[in-house]
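Just curious: can you write whichever protein you like plus the matching C-alpha cells?

***
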Amino acid sequence: MAWPKKPRENVLKRRLVSIAALLVAGGTALLAVPDLRRAAEEASSINVLWLIGAGALELASCISFLAIFRRFFEELPMSEARRLAWIEMGSGAVLPGGGVGSLAAGGMLLRRGGMSTQSIVQRSSGLFFLTSGTNVLALEGAAVALGLGIGSGPHGAALVAIPATVGLAGAAIVLALARPRWHRNGHRRALSAVVDGVRQAERELIRPHWRLLGALGYLGFDIAVLGVVCAGVGHPIGAPALVLAYVIGYAANTLPVPGGIGVLEGGLVGALVLYGAPVMPATAAVLLYHTIAFWIPSLGGAVAYGMTATARRGARSRSVRVLERPFRYRGRRGQTRQFELEEVLERSMRASGSVAITRGRSTTS
C-alpha cells in the first residue's frame, strides 16, 4: 500500500523551489550591476586562508545555536533537536523575514510531531527573545565602548546615542509585554504564549546555564565572520564599530525578501560605510560574508531536512505493515484521543518509552 503524500509537503517543496529560483535570479541581477561586478572581483582576490577561517567561524556560530536551541527544547531527543535546529538555521537563511521565518518552519515541524501550539509559541518566543536580547546587549556594549573612544571608527555622539536609545526602547517594549497588566485585558489569549516566552527568556538570564553561552557564540562568531572578511579585503574594522554596523545592518533583514538578497547587502554595506569603511571594500566584504552566512546554514539545513524526511518515510513504511486504520493513543498524562495512523506513529517514535501496538490501541510503557 503506497502512502499518499500530504498536500502540505508538496506545497512546501514548491515554495522551496520557487525561493531557490528567486535567489539565483536575484544574485545574478545583483552581479550584473557594474559596481557590484567590481566588488565581486575584489572579493575574489582574497586569500583563501581568510575564507577558511571565516567558514570555520560560521560553523562555530551554527554549533553555538545548537546549544541554545537545546536549552529551550530539552524534551526532544538529541538527534531530533540537532536536526530541527539546523532546519531552523537553514530556513532563517533562505526564507523571508530571517529569524521569524526560521521559527515558523521549526514550529510547523514541531506541530506535526505532536507538540501543542501553545508550547511551540512559548518556547520559540523564549528562544527568539533571548537571542534578540543578546543582540541588544551587544549593541549597548559596543555603543558605550565606541563612546569611550575604544577601537577605531567615528565617535560622533549621534552614531553612539541613536543606536543605544533605539536598542533600549525596543527592549523596554518587549519587557512590558510580560508585565501583569497584559493579563487583565481581552488580549490575554492572544498574548499568553508570547508573554510566557518573554518570561522564560527572563528566567534564563536570571538563572544562567552553560548553554546560554550558545547565544553569545551564535552572535559573536557570526560577527567575527564579517570582521574576518573585512580584514581579508584589506580594511579591518574596530570591534565596537563592527558590532554596531552588524546589528544595525541586520535590521534590514526583517524585510520579506527571500534570503535577504539585496536588502541585507544594502543594510550591512550602508552601516559599515557609516562607521568608517570604504564603499568598495565594504561591498566586497559583505558579498563574501553573505555567501558564507547563507550557504553553510542552508546546506546544513538541507541535509537535516533530508534526514528527517528519510526517517518519516521509514516510519510510514513500517506503520503500514502494522496497522491500516485509525486507532487510539494514550499520552503521557493519560488522556486518550483519536488520531490518524501517521500522526500517532510520529508521536510514538518521539515518546520517551517504548510503544507496543496491539489491536486498535497503543500503550506506552
